[in-house]
Amino acid sequence: MQKQVAFYRPTAFWEEPASNITSELHTHGIEKFRSLEHPLGYFVPTYGVPASGFTAEQAAGLLAWLGTLFPQATKPQLALAQFLGGEMSALADYRVLAAADDPRARPFLHTFSESTFGSPVEHFQFNGRRFSRSSLNYLLGLSLLKKHLHGDVPRTVLEIGGGFGSLGEVLSNAGIEGLRYIDVDIPPTSFVAQRYLSEVLGEEKVATYAQTCGRDSIAIDSLPQAAVLCAWQLEKLNGAVDLFVNFVSFQEMEPDIVRNYFSHVTRLGARWVLLRNLREGKQQRKDGGLGVDTPIRSSDYLSMLPGYDLVERNVIPFGYRTVDGFHSEILLLKRHS
Q1: Which residue ranges form the domains of the chain, and what is each CATH number?
Q2: pLDDT per residue as tens digits for the range 100-120
Q3: Is the model's pTM score more than 0.90?
Q4: What is the DSSP letter of 285?
Q5: First vs last Cα of the chain: how many Å apart?
Q6: How many CB atoms lie within 10 A of CB 66?
Q7: How many angstroms separate the CA atoms of 237 and 173, rounded?
Q8: Which long-range contacts (CB under 8 A, 24 or more apart) does 295-298 make?
C-alpha cells in the first residue's frame, strides 16, 4: 500500500486509525474484530456505545443511578437500558425497513439475518432475524433504491470502502441471480472484509487479494460471487457494473481522491449510484486532530458526476439526522440514458 500513488493510500483521516486497527487485529485476532476498540470507532458502526456518544462507564453509571432512584420500577430502567444500548434506534430503522420494503420484489430484503462472525458487541433480533447498524444502514439504502428499479435488479455491484463486507452479505441473501459483488478498499479493512465474506459465503465464492494481486487486468466477468480488491487494483478492473455504492467513507477522503474514484465508476459504466454521506461534510482537521483537510458536501458529489441525474435525496426516513444537527444523506443517481 505504501508504494502506491497517493490516490490509493490512507488519507489524513485514516492513516493513524489504519495502523491502530492493524495492531489490534494482530493482538486479539480477526475473530474478535467487531468487539475491538478501534474497529468500533471507525468501520463497525453501533447504535449504542461508542457511536451514541456515551462511554460504557457513563452508560453503566446512568443505569446504576436510575436504579437507586427507582429500585422497584422496572419500566424506567428498561427504557433507559434500551435507549443507551441502541435498541430503540435499531427498532426505529427496522420499522422503516418493514414499512418500505415490498417482499414480493427482488432484491429480497425481508429474509436477511446477519452472521455472528467477529464477535459483535451489538446485535438486535427482530422477528427472529439478526441485525447490526451496518446491515440496517445498507438495507435502508437498498429500500430507497428498490423503489426506483421497477424490476430492473442490479446484478453487478461495485462498492468502494465497504467496511467489513456487510453489503456483500446483504446482497448475497437477496435472491439475485448471477450476483457479483466487488468491494474495493484499503488494508486493513480490505483484509477484514475478505475474511468476513469468506466466513459468510464460503471461501470458494470469494476472490481475495492474494488471488488477484498478480493480474495486469481483472475482468469483472471472471470474478466469483464476491471479490475484495485493494484500492490500487481498481485501475486494473475491466467490464461493466450495474450499481455503485459508497456509504459513509467518501466523507472521510479528500476531494481529489473521491474525484479519481468517480472517474473509474464512470469508466465502468455504472447505471446507478447510491451514496450515503454527510450533507455538511466531515469535520475539518485542526492542529493534527481527527478530520479532513477539505470537507466534501452533497453538492460536491453531484458536481463530480456530470453524466448522472439525481433521482432522489433523502435524510428521513432512509438516512439519519444526528442529535447535533448533521445530516447523513442518501443520494441516488442514474446514468443518462
Answers
A1: 6-47+86-335 (3.40.50.150)
A2: 999 999 999 999 999 999 999
A3: yes
A4: P
A5: 37
A6: 16
A7: 25
A8: 295/251, 296/250, 296/251, 296/253, 296/255, 296/258, 298/329, 298/331
